[in-house]
Design brief:
Elements (H helix, E strand, L loop, with lengths): L6 E5 L4 H12 L3 E6 L2 H11 L3 E5 L5 H15 L4 E4 L14 H29 L2 E6 L13 H24 L3 E7 L27 H14 L3 E3 L4 H13 L1
Helix pairs in contact: 1-6, 3-4, 4-5
């Protein structure tokens, strides 16, 4: 599928993967709707992109603001073709030290935010008979070997299950709607420094992909309407190795 003239909503578009993805999609001819809480950063990105970009300031942990973002996109362009649930947040707390608020925050920021996007966009896609939902998860949902990311890993694992469950639900009732799961590893963004409780700067991690590299993989997955994709060719093997060791 060509991305030319596709309308794509990207949450978490004010920085990191979301910003890079919006730029990559726009470069390929898509029209992008930029969603995040930070108006200044979104408007700066819109200024860089010029045409085919609209800002929808909103907090995606609030259902009403997600629905408002969809309404903004439809008002501007008549419809949406792809909805990317990219917004999320990390944590730097070991399992034994987790508080109720830590876990609640991770679920809200990484699961509820995506659920609201899935539900709002699905209703729109059902009416059109086609569409694509893209959920950006994490390799830590499959290989939760970083203890301080405990609740983040758990929340992303929950997102994986919701993604697959939605696929099962709509397989016959909405066959034209594709649900895509994206699994990045370390990415050189401010994710680490913005994590709840602070933590190591992701930009200093060995082997971290750039946000631009990840954006290319996601854009390709949208173009090809893939159901699941790792952002690096080695990651599938790493997951297999992880589970093989658990069985040894």
């Amino acid at each position: 599928m060509s991305l030319e003239d596709q309308v794509v909503v990207v949450t978490g578009a004010s920085g990191g993967i979301g910003r890079a993805l919006a730029i990559e999609l726009h470069r390929r001819g898509a029209t992008v709707v930029l969603v995040a809480r930070r108006r200044k950063e979104l408007e700066a990105l819109q200024g860089e992109l010029g045409s085919r970009a609209t800002v929808a300031v909103g907090d995606v942990t609030k259902r009403a603001e997600v629905e408002a973002a969809l309404a903004t996109a439809v008002s501007a362009y008549g419809h949406v073709d792809v909805w990317v649930n990219n917004a999320g947040r990390g944590i730097s707390v070991n399992p034994e030290a987790l508080t109720d608020d830590d876990l609640d925050t991770m679920i809200t920021d990484n699961v509820k935010s995506a659920l609201y996007g899935m539900q709002a966009s699905l209703k729109h896609f059902r009416s059109r008979g086609t569409g694509q939902i893209v959920n950006v998860s994490s390799m830590l949902s499959r290989t939760p070997y970083v203890a301080i990311r405990s609740a983040y890993s758990a929340a992303k694992a929950a997102l994986n299950s919701l993604t697959e469950s939605l696929r099962v639900q709509i397989r016959e009732s909405a066959p034209g709607v594709v649900v895509t799961l994206v699994l990045p590893g370390p990415v050189a963004t401010d994710f680490g420094s913005n994590a709840r409780g602070g933590g190591p700067d992701s930009r200093a991690l060995a082997g971290a992909q750039t946000a631009e590299e990840v954006a290319v993989v996601i854009a390709d997955a949208i173009r090809d309407r893939k159901r699941e994709v790792y952002t690096h060719p080695s990651y599938a093997g790493r997951v297999a190795e992880y589970f093989a060791k658990l069985q040894s």
